[in-house]
Amino acid sequence: MRGASLAAGCLIGAFCLQALLTIPRLSATADEPIHIASGYSYWKTRDFRMERDTPPTSKLIAALPLLLLHLKLDTSSTVWINGAAAQSLFGFVFLYQNDADRVLYWARIPVIALAALGAVFTFLWARDLFGPAAGVTAACLYSFCPNLLAHGMLMTSDVPVSVFTMMTLYLFWKGTEGNSGHSWRNDLAVGLALGAAMTTKFSAGILPIMLAVLAIVRLGRPAIKSLAIMAMVCLVVIGASYLFAVSPSFYFHSVGGVNQYIIKDYPIYLFGQLKPGGYWYYFLAAFALKATAPTLILIGLGVIRAMEGTINRWGETILVVSIGSFFIVTSVVAGQIGIRYLLPVFPLVFVWVSRVTPDLLALRGGKAIVAGLLAWHAFSCLHVFPDYIAYINELAGGPSKGWQLLDDSNVDWGQGVKQAAQYVRNRHLDRVTLYTFSPLDNPQYYGLPRNLQASEARERLIGKRPDPGVYIISAHHVIRMRQVDPAWKTYEPVDRIGESLWVYSF
């Protein structure tokens, strides 16, 4: 048992090291400036006008180190006065009127700590369900998961809500295993974790429903008391997440703002095709493309093993119900722009597939099989360092083929602007034109020319051959330009920067 804990600790340390080495290399992704600026403004003003469509907990946690930096926050500007209507500009101004790289670094550190905590709970649940060896397997799958690394070092809410979801379900299982769910201490712990999840991202609203159904099935009438305690604690956490500056009703009113910025019938890209409104199987396909090949193999082995019966019926029921519920709800309500919306599923899958570890180890040569799969998994992750966002598994052709399969935050989310600056400096390039992911990217901050706006890009890049020079263009834009201008299917990039930015020379 001690050896397994030590091994898991080393693996989680490897996760943190990868993240710490990566964060200085990445520029701000599309959502980070407003998340960071909002969190800082909450602490400084106790005013929650900005970004009401995302609850505050992860933003408050990430902004804690920033309170020591004495940053500029202008609450007299029209941007602040206009509130949510100008929140993206507010985030941009806040980040770049301060030392952006320093702000990004310190805001990302707490998210890495949260992600590491998720790895701890993944290990604990797998160990408690299936034994120490399974715990190490789950910890390894988590620590070298390119998707959890990609977003576990960014100041966004996707990994934090995954961590708090894992904590909630693990604590719920521990308390209800053996019919001990009536313990008020356990109910208190579950309520705290549930409140943290619900105040990190509104998508965690599925958790109370799941817990209610599972608790009633498991405990019967005594579940009502437990659920009532969880609900009351959760309401207190909701109030605390808003620093008790507003009524808890503010949280529920804000739910209406979810998906308010999603464009109806927005063309979704999958397998080389754009389809208005998207695909019902988008997230299933994205998972199959972005989970590592060893993870998919272990899922297959887990299904085969499950046909022979369960190892821990109640624990596996919670895992399978949770995985299925998140897949269904995410597919129905989430914007089809990134695997990041499905991140809560990954730790749950890692726990469940670890069930095959004892069986494999019992086979002749089983240790080599397990070691081989985990080594392959780790290599797949390390091989794409530091470009985890663009990861695509080898079965689908690897990251270099990602643009043929997926788009948006699956490949480019604005993270490569800083890498592009280094690329231009190292090669002493001039006459460079940039068309990066977002109009709120700031290449000028890194010494590059300003970014093309959409209208300029249409005029200069579509319908005619671009003027002579070097063009660094987001994969997101290249994909769409290929759909409207066949000439872009014939233009070959001379290089790629992190698979997210393509370099053309005309």
Give the helix proportion (percent range).
55-70%
Computed CA radius of gyration, to the nearest angstrom? 23 Å
Spans where pLDDT lies below 50 across 5 or more residues: none
Shape: globular
Distance between the termini: 61 Å
Number of strands: 6
Strand content: under 5%
Sheet with the most strands, sense and barrel status: 4 strands, mixed
SSE topology string:
HHHHHHHHHHHHHEEHHHHHHHEHEHEE
Spatial order of the strands in the main sheet? 3-4-6-5
Tally of structural domains: 2
Strand-pairing-aware structural class? mainly alpha
The number of helical segments is: 22
Question: Which structural traits does this protein have?
Answer:
mainly alpha, two-stranded antiparallel sheet, single chain, 4-stranded mixed β-sheet, 5% strand, 506 residues
